[in-house]
Amino acid sequence: MKKSNLYQKIYYLTKKIPRGKVATYGQIAALCGSPRAARIVGYALHIIPENSQIPWQRVINRQGIISTTCFEHPPTLQADILKSEGVEVNNHKGVFQIDLKKYLWRP
DNA sequence: AAGGTGACTAACA
DNA sequence: ATGTTAGCCACCT
């Protein structure tokens, strides 16, 4: 069950992202104390347990773009959930983008 | 055990 | 501005 301390931190911090806000992979990594572990954050969310209660949809890349490739969690679904939480998601020709100036979580 | 991979970034050309 | 390159580091095979 227990993966690694880093993963636990990632999941813990992701849960702290408030509704209506988003965070970037690098941001989560930095809060974990590993500023260079952005890719690990992505991987951690990729293998996220289904019943984990973790708001994976609130984590996006540095450009404010939804970058999931996971078949179980497609960008369309992520965009829908975010919109339902009050986050503006611009569908720019199949690329879902969010205004980080407005919606980036600032701890 | 060792090499490959990726829901990333920042730095260059 | 857009495309390419190189670091990154825990997990997977």
Question: Can you give a write-up of this model?
Answer:
This protein is mainly alpha-helical. It is built from five helices and four strands. The strands form two sheets. It has a two-stranded parallel sheet. Strands 3-4 form a two-stranded antiparallel ribbon. A hairpin with a 2-residue loop joins strand 3 and strand 4 (95-97). Helix 2 crosses helix 3 (38-46). The chain binds a DNA duplex (13 and 13 nucleotides) through helix 2, helix 3 and strand 2.
Mean pLDDT: 93
| C-alpha end-to-end distance | 29 Å
Share of residues in helices: 25-40%
Structural class: mainly alpha
* Order of strands across the main sheet: 1-2
Shape: globular
- Alpha plus pi helix count: 5
Give the ordered list of helices and strands.
HEHHEHEEH
From the alpha carbons, calculate the radius of gyration and give it in angstroms. 13 Å
What's the assembly state of these chains?
single chain
List its salient traits:
single chain; mainly alpha; globular; DNA-binding
Helices and strands in order, then pairings?
Elements: H1 5-15, E1 23-24, H2 25-31, H3 38-46, E2 59-60, H4 75-84, E3 90-92, E4 95-97, H5 100-103
Parallel strand pairs: 1-2
Antiparallel strand pairs: 3-4
Helix pairs in contact: 2-3
This protein binds a DNA duplex (13 and 13 nucleotides) through residues 3-4, 6-7, 24-26, 29, 34, 36-47, 56, 59-62, 66-70, 73, 75, 78.
